[in-house]
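Ticket #4471: structure export looks truncated?
Reporter: QA, pipeline team
Priority: medium

Steps to reproduce: submit the single chain below to the structure queue and open the exported record.
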Amino acid sequence: MARMGLAPVLGYLIVEESFDVALGVFALAGVTDLLDGFIARNWANQKSALGSALDPLADKILISVLYVSLTCANLIPVSLTSMIILRDVALIAAVFYVRYKTLSPPRTFSRYFNPCYATAQLKPTFISKVRGLFTTDYFPPRCITAFTTMSSAYSYYHYGRKTVQVINNK
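Actual output as written to the record:
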């Protein structure tokens, strides 16, 4: 939740060109992500279905706000931001589709969005993990970010069935 709350603050700071403070906010968001993962891995009673659903969503919100605000500040091109956001939208749409296909009837709105009914898990591909390094931590040349984003999107498309693990059919 902290990363989701920090996302608009980060965006505002970048658009207002307060880059030093924005870097601090981005670092704080990274620390909360590390702490969240550490706590979930080391204390079993702190891991939840809701948390495992919100974690990747918080990452996508933070990165999307980061790229849109960097584009608004004329620091990166619209085409790169569009590519990254379109890839994430396609992934989210695929997750919704897999959720629909793996949720047994009755497929009600409340069951569909209830994270306690975990039916499938998306495993990141290797290139997707590499892409994560290039889009969040180091900001390499734009061509590398674009290449890893496109490669990641293709890997999910090509290896789609291998990246989804059906947990149960309830």
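Status: closed, not a bug. The export was complete when the record was re-opened. Leaving a note from the reviewer for reference: The chain has a mean pLDDT of 81.
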